[in-house]
Amino acid sequence: MLRDSFGRVATDLRVSLTDKCNLRCTYCMPPEGLDWLPTAQVLTADEIVRLVRIGVEMLGITEVRYTGGEPLVRRELVEIVQRTAALRPRPQISLTTNGIGLARLAEPLRAAGLDRVNVSLDTLDREHFKRLTHRDRFDDVIAGLRAAHEAGLRPIKVNTVLMRGINEDEAVSLLRFCLEQGYELRFIEQMPLDAQHGWSRAAMVTADEILAKLSAAFDLTPDQEERGSAPAERFLVDGGPARVGVIGSVTRPFCGSCDRVRLTADGQVRNCLFAREESDLRGPMRAGASDEELAERWRAAVRGKRAGHGIDDPSFLQPSRPMSAIGG
């Protein structure tokens, strides 16, 4: 098992398939983009599946989520999902995506074994979307959501980051949209993971502010289902059964119950989204390391996990890698 020194066990593996993305969201990267990883440094499909297999068969991983960058731009995505679904015990398989290309790939991914998707959508206004992402792809995202729903990739969760002075006034309209479409909306506090290192606490819309905005239009009651290690605090909307989630990574951290571990597109283990240290699996794997040797390196990486992300600590330093290179 992947147990750290505080007794937490990692069972949820987030795998970044690429650092490339076809949007330029302002809280993630600059309009001109970033220097992408050289192809030779990115894990091959065989290497990804091997490491996921080790995680599932030898280390107790029960859920695998593929992320990016934007995972839909990874050419072998359907193949990787299909091979993951063939593992035993079979893990739950999910995908975090911006939705561009999902209209075309939803059915093939469902047939390959994908269970569900999280789709990022920060606004319902096309002009705001262009301003936020520097791309005119709003219709593609909406089409991707619709295709995922029709393919049965449910529950569909919509991830939204509210930003002060930009889209914070859309909280209520976004929730109404998701309620009408049968999606589960999850608001996420903006985190210090942008490539520009321009994040500031003062500009962040907090969980408390989000809940206040929603409570002005809806009756929210805490969900009585056990939260467990889930990052979102969930609330019944107008008595349910519909729910909305709020992920207060900064102001309401859930580090004490965290069960996640991350694998970057270039084969580095990260035991926390905000970690500044990484443990290399790609190098030893390409040098001929056995499955057991790789598993032990992975165990050692997780054993060193800190008690919390430390954003409130005056000594906190933002990770050198941005979100697009870490994987969500």
Structural features, described:
- The protein has a twelve-stranded mixed sheet. A two-stranded antiparallel sheet has the order 1-2.
- Strand 13 and strand 14 (279-280) form a beta hairpin.
- The model has no long low-confidence stretch (mean pLDDT 92).
- It is globular.
- Helix 2 (77-85) packs parallel to helix 3 (102-112).
- It has a single domain, classed as Aldolase class I (TIM Barrel, Alpha-Beta Barrel).
- The chain has helices at 45-59, 77-85, 102-112, 126-133, 138-151, 171-181, 207-215, 282-286, 291-303, 323-326, and strands at residues 2-3, 9-10, 12-16, 63-67, 92-97, 116-120, 157-160, 184-188, 220-222, 233-237, 243-247, 260-263, 268-270, 279-280.
- It has ten helices and 14 strands.
- It has 328 residues and is of the alpha/beta class.
CATH architecture: Alpha-Beta Barrel
- Number of H/I helices: 10
Averaging pLDDT over every residue, what do you get? 92
The major β-sheet equals: 12 strands, mixed
Instruction: State the fourth-level CATH superfamily.
Output: Aldolase class I
Q: Can you list the strand order of the major beta sheet?
A: 9-10-11-8-7-6-5-4-3-12-13-14
- Report the C-alpha radius of gyration, rounded: 19 Å
Number of strands: 14
Give the helix level as a range of percent: 25-40%
Order of helices and strands: EEEHEHEHEHHEHEHEEEEEEHHH
Q: What's the CATH class, please? A: Alpha Beta
What's the shape? globular
**Could you name the CATH topology?**
TIM Barrel
* First-to-last CA distance: 22 Å
Content-based structural category: alpha/beta
Total separate domains: 1
- In the predicted model, the low-confidence regions spanning at least 5 consecutive residues are none
Proportion of beta-strand residues: 15-25%
